[in-house]
């Protein structure tokens, strides 16, 4: 994706404003908030939305460290799947996580993703190449998850 760019508060604010004002047909961002409160405690997104083929990419979730490990990821992930399959009417949702990111992989498996494969040397991060799992949930998987979890 090119060279590193310096990050600043101003750059982050502009990025958030651009996301909020962009009416993209292929990407949707969601703020994570506690029910009944306005404070944003995380975010998630769906991208690469392809209505013709019925596919999309869930980027995972970024949560405030104070609430991580308390079930928020599972709840948000299940709501994302519900949105993907019931509102967007997708056939397949893919996700990816680094091989060594056990928490990410565990969350995805917990909500119903299945490992499709391991891409070798797929991501350059922190000065070295990393393997990355590619995972997915298809509509028939979701229907089972929905029934099992009473979504």
From TrEMBL:
It comes from the Bacteria. It holds the Pfam family Acetyltransf_3. Residues 13-114 form the N-acetyltransferase domain. PANTHER family: FAMILY ACETYLTRANSFERASE, PUTATIVE (AFU_ORTHOLOGUE AFUA_7G00850)-RELATED, RIBOSOMAL-PROTEIN-SERINE ACETYLTRANSFERASE. This is N-acetyltransferase domain-containing protein.
